[in-house]
Amino acid sequence: MLKTTGEGTSSMEKPPLQFLYLILDDWALGYNIRKVDVSCNDHDLLDDCAFGYSIRKVNVSSDDPDLLLLNGMARESAVCLPSPIFRLKARRFLNFIPRHMDRFRPIYFSIGSRLFVLGSSSFEVIDLQPIDNPSSQLDSLSWCKLQDAPFHSAEVVSYAILPDKQTIFASVGLITNNATYSFQMADDIEGGSPTWKRIGEWVLPFYGSGYFDSALNAWVGLSMYSLETGRICACNLVPANSNSVDCPTWKFSKENLFSNDPTETHVGATLVYMGHDSRFCLLECVIVYYKYRVRSYNFKEKDVYPQAFRYMYRVTTFSLKYDNNGDLTTGDSRRVRYYKAPKKEVTRYLCESPVVFWM
């Protein structure tokens, strides 16, 4: 089994180990948070915590990434509850905040101590700076309504934040005309309150979130284009303070990071940034059929059951760089490990869109 690290490191010791955390719907009353040590070759997942709440987006504060926000609605209930804030590594609840009411496909942006949520018909922000203070009352924390976005959150295909932490970009497409919008939060915006601006008839080239990497000076994400499936994309930054911007340039990695094993069937994948040195982790969910598998996956005879397949998590850690020809590459940095998903309980829904984060 995977082991947690001890507490109380001194300033002379190495920083605490970080882990990959995965949200699974393998609990009848809610969701489990499971921890994966990507430096370990153990093929099991550690069942670290369990909560009776549905979890949408977990990162609350980019200044304090150990905080999690759990949506305050019981899995089998339509009752709207306050959203608990949880400090993961200390395994304790800190406080509750009012739950935003726009619950259909929300997208969260964590900027400093502020948490922004883009809903189907609203755009709101809450400042969580005092959340670690147990004396803070629920009514002292409230969502502040911002200008509504000129699009539906379900239309968003990709999004990113500039490193100045003042500008959000969101691209819409697939079910609507391609377009990218910006929302600038700087206090000195000419004309007063911040507003959404349509800046181009193009979309950012990655699927979901793009992560800023300072070494590459680019947003990095998983390619959204079918011809580049499984490749990593590094996209040049879009300048702020522009009313109209040409489509940025980008490069795809030379390597395809998805499994090329014909006995593994791709289900879904999520890319996460490991925080520094252009290090990333790609979690891909695959179906492995017992009858046709080539490798053992450390299966035991008792694992073979009538359904004849098992969900596996294929976890690839890697670094990105530009080679001498200017091509984006992982070089020889890739390391691949496999972890078993809990047998029978995990649904295909969360396998198609894995919810995973690094801290």
TrEMBL record:
<dbReference type="Pfam" id="PF07893">
    <property type="entry name" value="DUF1668"/>
</dbReference>
<protein>
    <recommendedName>
        <fullName>F-box protein</fullName>
    </recommendedName>
</protein>
<dbReference type="InterPro" id="IPR012871">
    <property type="entry name" value="DUF1668_ORYSA"/>
</dbReference>
<dbReference type="InterPro" id="IPR011043">
    <property type="entry name" value="Gal_Oxase/kelch_b-propeller"/>
</dbReference>
